[in-house]
Amino acid sequence: MHGRSFWVRRAEQRLGPELGQLRHVAASRRIHWAWLVPCIAIGFVYGVIGQFISSPRSTDRTPDRFEDIPLFMVVSLLTGLVLWSLTLAFSFRTLLVFDAGIVTSFAQKATTRIFYWNQVNPESIKAVTSQDGSGPTHLLVAKKLTKLSVRGKYAVVFQAVPAKVEPATNSSTEPPQAGFWTFETTDEPSPLVLALQQAMVEARIPGAERIAVQALPPVVLAGRTILD
């Protein structure tokens, strides 16, 4: 299965006994290349500061700052790259579709968010995009709207509702808040939508058989769209 990283396999092993088989892995990624140059510039600033801090014996007659220019360049560049690499923590998000529901924020047990199928309104599931190809979530309006991803060309939207019957589980995760949730991705949303439909149909959720018909192809948003 595409996208089964170390973190996904770890979540699969931890949640599999409770949620069943992992059916689909949806990725949301947006690398912030625009931050690379500023981070490198900051790295050189730190490098200059380091030259003065690490050269306390330097005097006007015997300066020992910037004596090793190649080393200064390499250290400053590496410092900038390390700073930029920290932005990668905000560049990737993943959504998992299991037999029993949707899982996000699964890197740690305390942050794991689970949407069981009886907490998802199948009639609310839609795929949308925007005319200019930017993230479509900013065009959606709802009383409660939460984004589960970084910015992407497409967004899959669904509504979380209070479960009529609590799932039989010993999970310590908090139930998701009622409202609309979006997952943006640069990938074509059809595989995710079809995985949602198949899992909900097999879970015998009423109305799940029409998910693909109502959600695909993605609706192109021309302006602000009210979800409520």
From TrEMBL:
Transmembrane segments: 31-49, 69-90
Keywords associated with the record: Membrane, Transmembrane, Transmembrane helix
Top-rank lineage group of the source organism: Bacteria
Name of the featured protein: DUF3093 domain-containing protein
